[in-house]
Amino acid sequence: MSGFAARIRRATMVEHREAENRTFISRLLAGTVPLEGFAQLTAQYLAVYRELEAAAAEMRTNPVAGGFADPALFRVPALEADLAHLYGPGWESTITTLASTERYIERLREYCRTSPGHFVAHHYVRYLGDLSGGQLIGRSLAGTYGLDRAGTAFYRFEKIPDTRAYKTAYRERLDALDLPEEELVEVVAEAQLAFTFNGAIFQELGAAYPDDLAPAA
Predict the structure, then answer these.
(1) Is residue 216 part of a domain?
(2) pTM strictly above 0.90
(3) Structural domain tally of the chain?
């Protein structure tokens, strides 16, 4: 695989692996984190996707980034449904946003509504990951926490019947990015930063739900 899609994948491989290998994620998949920890992660994702999808609305007509701002990808309604299931009525007044999440969404708010390159970088890190490993993670968490389909709607893309074909088309859009080399370098750097922001959320959640905290029965 060649082109910019391969380039950004190679350049973010270390950051991607570090984010995935955070102890919190490993323990979550093993079922040794209380259900509340999973609910907290879902709440952090809602804050991130609300900001990212607000940026997508701004980028819809942008000649560079518009092709990425596809409403079929939007996760906010699914996340809201998941949180309603996990927390029950009044969930919006129950959830909190972590300091690491606040730093992440501040970065999105500062750059992604006006800079197509920054928007594409963050969009790539979140959505292509959701369409890839996120599918396996969702199925695993549903079984581990006895959620079936309720509570894990975030991980399912009902409007994208063929995720493999969609990912192929997505990578073709990356290869076709009409940006000068210096801006492509910035896209790569911003994608690396995006993985760091995600890793920071996992780290903060890991501290909030340490190894010696018993999982929910």
Answers:
(1) no
(2) yes
(3) 1
